[in-house]
Amino acid sequence: MDSDYGGLSPSDRQRQTAAEIARKKVLAAYSSTVDTIKNLPANSRDILLKDHTSNPSVVNSNTQYDSPYQPAAYQTNWQNTTYQPDATSATGQYQSYESPPTEQYNQYNQAYYNQNISTNDPSSTTSSKEQASALKDTAVDQEAINAEWAKYHSAWQDYYKNYYSDYYAKAAQSYIATEKMKNERVATGKVHRTRNLRRLIPVSIVVIVILIGLFLQYNRLIFAPIMAYVSPDTGSVATSIEAVDPSITQAVSPEPRLIIPKLNIDVPIEFNAPVASIDEAMNRGVAQFSIPGADAMPGQVGNLVISGHSAGDIYSNNPYKFIFSGLERLGEGDLIYVNYDSVRYTYQMTSRNVVEPTDVASLIYPTDKPILTLITCTPLGTSRYRLLITAEQISPEYAQTDSTDSSVTPNPAPETDATMPANEPSFFEKIWQGIFGS
């Protein structure tokens, strides 16, 4: 076999070609000889099978005779055809042939012709029917035929013996060369290195799968702190609200918006969003988290609570997932603006607080001022706690009489299952909710 490209090697193809030639010549000699013996009359068959080695003479092998028993074709003396080893062959297999002179065979055909001239002569006294009957009764020399069969099989056995001897010798050489190469690789450590690398493949696959899972679950821990110092891209232009005098009430568009100049935030607000669907509302900007005791509107005495996301998966298509990621950067005195009903309300930050997600009671307290509270998750990238930023309204001026309409009972008992809004669920949380629905 060809070790480089597969299939037979050039030497194997050459050996196969020589074998095919030998097979064709042997079969041709055998078939033509059997046909010739069958077509000869009995007396000529006996001469050919018994005395063909006595006195050869040269006769033209292409001579044609007008005999009813004329052979189909004249071939070389098939009995004396021998295999001659090729002197240039390294293996000594039979690749070329030597054919003895054809005179002997032609001599007996000439004798047959001379003997049967009278058969075709009308003046002959012996009828053709009588000659045919005599030929049928003549016995065939089976021993001579068996001897030729034995020689035929012996020639094929010798051929296959040499062929397979050479084949297995080359196979043994190839095996020895392969083993030698393996031993060299073992000696140089290549085998051990290859085996170690193969063992690392499944380990590497497991590690890659784990890393992908960790990235899908915790990528927000990486990107949320970065986005806290990057201006939110909400599709609106950067605001220059810091140049406006907060003591001046300015006419604005009727669209409700939350504006924080220090964080470059200018985002839509959805008021009166149902608590059950507030997470969906926060996907469209920020939303009012309205609960009993903390449900004031802009300009009213009481607590106006607005919630927004601080982190989300980087592959999420929510443009507002990092909108409150920089809320921790606000300090006391920073201004916050709320546009509502074509009026701009200005708030000034007064305090911050970190509470449990279920501590909704911290949003409900008595007050005689319009208060704004911003809610988001903390630490960044998680939903473990809630950060509360509290600010008081400083513009426009509000009437103290409004407090009677918005008065609240101090620290009313909230619902036990009430929870402040959270960030978007993480990758595995989404899978869990998809399976169990909670």
Structural account:
The chain is of the alpha+beta class. The chain is built from nine helices and ten strands. Strand 3 (257-260) and strand 4 (265-270) form a beta hairpin. Mean pLDDT is 75; it is low at 51-101 and 401-413. It is rod-shaped and about 155 Å long. The chain has helices at 10-39, 42-50, 103-115, 117-120, 128-137, 142-188, 190-227, 278-282, 427-436; strands spanning 82-84, 96-98, 257-260, 265-270, 286-288, 302-307, 335-340, 343-355, 370-378, 385-395. It has an eight-stranded mixed beta barrel with strand order 3-4-5-6-9-10-8-7. A two-stranded antiparallel ribbon has the order 1-2.
Give a short overview.
The protein is an alpha+beta fold and 438 residues long.
Summary tags:
438 residues, two-stranded antiparallel sheet, 9 helices, rod-shaped
Distance between the termini: 66 Å
The assembly state of the depicted protein chains is single chain
Order of helices and strands: HHEEHHHHHEEHEEEEEEH
The averaged pLDDT comes out at 75
Q: State the helix count.
A: 9
Q: Characterize the main sheet.
A: 8 strands, mixed, barrel
Widest sheet, order of strands: 3-4-5-6-9-10-8-7
Helix content: 25-40%
- Rounded radius of gyration (Å): 55 Å
Could you list the spans in which at least 5 consecutive residues all have pLDDT below 50? 51-101, 401-413
Shape: rod-shaped
Estimated share of beta-strand residues: 5-15%
The counted number of beta strands is: 10
**Which class of secondary structure composition applies to the elements?**
alpha+beta
